[in-house]
Write a structure and sequence with these properties.
Blueprint: E1 8-13, E2 17-24, E3 27-30, E4 39-40, E5 42-45, E6 51-53, H1 55-61, E7 68-70, E8 82-84, E9 87-89, H2 91-110, E10 116-121, H3 127-139, E11 143-149, H4 150-159, E12 166-173, E13 178-186, E14 189-198, H5 203-222, H6 230-246, E15 252-263, E16 266-275, H7 276-301, E17 308-314, H8 321-331, H9 344-357, E18 373-382, E19 385-394, E20 402-409, E21 417-424, E22 434-442, E23 452-459, E24 465-471, E25 476-482, H10 488-508, H11 532-537, H12 539-548, H13 550-563, H14 568-586, H15 590-607
Parallel strand pairs: 1-10, 10-11, 12-17
Antiparallel strand pairs: 1-2, 2-3, 2-4, 5-6, 5-7, 8-9, 12-13, 13-14, 15-16, 18-19, 18-21, 20-23, 21-22, 23-24, 24-25
Helix pairs in contact: 2-3, 4-9, 5-6, 5-7, 7-8, 12-13, 13-14, 13-15, 14-15
The structure holds adenosine monophosphate (AMP).
Adenosine monophosphate (AMP) binds at residues 14, 16-17, 174-175, 202-204, 241, 244-245, 248, 315-317, 319-320, 342.
């Protein structure tokens, strides 16, 4: 077969894991092998000299380090011979073994031989390292159509085909390395402006830190250092890595390892509980180092945070909530994390591959939650009453299905119940978000651990949100299922619009043909209806409101007149505030009307 025939695949040849992807039915798709999308970048030989790759090789890494090679990417570009079993290999040969396995995987998945690939490398790779990668591809029987930078690939996943100039920051926090790149995208071309990072900072360091924490505790309790026994250390490392992953969605995790060590001839068990906040305290210095690199990369590129149009997250360690939280604080925006951070680079390489083949391809679209979901919490008391704020649990743009939990404290030791008020929106002020449900959780009185309430949100692909609140110490639990949590906004809008249409219909006494009715998804956020019939339909209420709340009615009128001239985000805020204000007036809730008026007045002051 000539090298210009057949599909071109995209390959992310990673330090820890590798992934192959291609365009299938017009969509960038990861090519899996019996459901496995990720191939550990590990090769080895069995005692009888057979080559093994991926998970099987990874499984023997601890027991047979002399017959197993991991992290070969770190040695690409060097001329260092690598012993493996009773032979030695050059680094591109080892990488070629991983690439060969990916090539076979791709050929099987696509049902035809694959001989062409785009392979990604870190932006900081020099010419030698790029050449070694190219060689590895050729050794694996692949014609390497192009070597592209990993941040370029990640950018293409989200922004393929966009023509406007924009700057994008790609934050890649993987298992062994951290990279940040600033890229400029213009007329579909992506250029890396600056890169920064640390080739020895990754998820592995976080595992090691957690391991040290647990081992230190064990040493104190049992006077045995688990780090001194290779097998115990390895078991603990595996357990810590798993615990770290769980802590990305759960508030606490238990590490339990039976017979992990021996003392005076008796077996010792390890059982310990780690909370997310313990873990966050341990890893904070590492996360801070990544933020410092981000600042340096910005300085090197001569850009400020405000010039960054998008923040793209890549690498498994970006799933850690603290990482996302710090970035959100730094950039004052939600990062793009809709695409699985482990797969984004390979999918982007597949996009580039399709461009080489002359196929047109759109950005990778996945299901994400369009709104932040969370609960109302009290941040403290003042003379004016409790200071209520919105505490997000699932952030906007999180891929679905999503499951996150967060711990809160009771307000008083003898509190007997807690109201869980579920909200949807993007504002810290409670009133500026939409209420989508509430329920009461009965509590056992008492302090200490009884103070802790864990609230878990499970959001499914079809938009069902299950909210579970549990008093941690007693396991007393209560749950609420909210259907349609994703489209609640649209549903509300639609109902209102239908009602308004009904009112107009009644007022005009005129029949509409079915084809004159908008389809449901045309009932997106509405511009204020100023038609006479609509006003007529709501006249009585408005007149009453006007008499009782003249300031609120005047503000709503002012908001309506300004709405068309403000940007989409402000317009959405104004709309929500007006709706909440209308609701508060209907309920004759004077204090809510007053505080909403203040907020609306503030926002109108800034936008006019
Ligand atoms: P990568 O090099 O991009 O494949 O990232 C691998 C790293 O991501 C490893 O250190 C994993 O332990 C880490 N990782 C994967 N999933 C999670 C998760 N859910 N939470 C925290 N770290 C994770």
């Amino acid at each position: 077969m000539s090298t210009t025939e057949g599909p071109v695949v995209g390959i992310d040849l990673g330090t820890t894991n590798s992934v192959v992807a291609a365009i299938v039915d017009g969509k960038p798709t990861v090519l899996d092998e019996v459901g496995e999308k990720i191939l550990p970048s590990v090769v080895g030989v069995t005692p009888d000299g057979q080559l093994i790759t991926g998970v099987v090789a990874l499984n023997q890494l601890a027991a047979f380090p002399d017959r197993t090679i991991a992290s070969i990417k770190r040695r690409m570009g060097t001329m260092e011979p690598i012993p493996l079993g009773d032979q030695t290999f050059m680094p591109p040969e080892i990488s070629a073994m991983i690439l060969r396995r990916l090539r076979d995987r791709a050929s099987r998945a696509l049902g035809q031989p694959v001989t062409r690939a785009v392979i990604t490398v870190p932006a900081f790779f020099d010419e030698n390292q790029r050449q070694a990668t190219r060689e590895a591809g050729e050794l694996a029987g692949l014609h390497v159509e192009r070597i592209i930078n990993e941040p370029t690939a990640a950018t293409l996943v989200y922004h393929v085909g966009e023509q406007d100039q924009k700057h994008i920051l790609v934050y890649d926090f993987g298992g062994g390395t951290f990279d940040v790149s600033l890229v400029r995208m213009e007329a579909g071309v992506v250029e890396v402006l600056s890169s920064n990072g640390d080739t020895h900072l990754g998820g592995d360091d976080l595992d090691q830190t957690l391991l040290d924490h647990v081992a230190d505790q064990f040493l104190e309790d049992q006077d045995v250092d688990l780090r001194e026994n290779a097998q115990a250390r390895y078991r603990l490392l595996q357990a810590c890595e798993q615990a770290k992953r769980h802590l990305s969605t759960e508030e606490t995790v238990e590490i339990a390892e039976e017979f992990i060590a021996e003392k005076d001839g008796s077996p010792l068990n390890l059982t310990t509980t780690i909370t997310r906040s313990d873990f966050e305290e341990l890893i904070e210095p590492f996360v801070q180092r990544t933020i410092d690199s981000v600042d340096e990369a910005l300085r090197d590129a001569g850009l400020t945070i405000h010039q960054i149009a998008d923040l793209v997250l890549v690498g498994g360690s970006t799933r850690i909530p603290l990482v996302e939280e710090r970035l959100r604080d730094e950039f004052q925006r939600d990062p793009s994390r809709a695409v699985d951070p482990d797969l984004a680079v390979a999918l982007g390489a597949a996009v580039q591959a399709a461009m080489i083949e002359g196929q047109s391809v759109g950005p990778v679209l996945v299901d994400v939650t369009p709104h932040t979901l969370g609960i109302e919490v009290c941040e403290g008391m003042s003379f004016a009453g409790p200071h209520l704020v919105f505490s997000p649990i699932i952030h906007r743009n999180s891929p679905l299905p999503a499951r996150y939990e967060q711990a809160y404290s009771k307000m008083f030791d003898n509190q007997e119940e807690a109201e869980i008020h579920v909200l949807q929106g993007e504002h810290s002020e409670v009133h500026r978000n939409r209420s989508i449900g509430r329920f009461l959780l009965d509590l056992e009185a008492g302090g200490g651990n009884r103070n802790k309430i864990v609230v878990r949100f499970d959001l499914t692909l079809d938009g069902t949100l299950k909210v579970t609140a549990t008093q941690a110490a007693t396991d007393i639990s209560q749950e609420l299922v909210i259907d349609n949590a994703l489209s609640q906004f649209q549903a509300d809008e639609r109902d209102r619009a239908v009602a308004r249409l009904g009112a107009m219909f009644d007022a005009s006494d005129e029949l509409l043909d079915d084809e004159d009715l908008p389809s449901p998804n045309q009932w997106a956020p509405q511009t204020p209806d100023t038609s006479d019939s609509s006003v007529a339909a709501t006249k009585t209420d408005s007149a009453e409101d006007e008499a009782k709340f003249p300031e609120a009615v005047a503000l709503i009128k002012k908001a309506e007149s300004l709405k068309s001239s403000v940007d989409a985000e402000d317009s959405c805020d104004i709309e929500t505030l007006c709706e909440n204000l209308n609701q508060a007036m209907t309920q004759r809730d004077h204090s809510a009307v007053a505080s909403l008026c203040t907020e609306l007045d503030d926002i109108l002051f800034y936008v006019q």
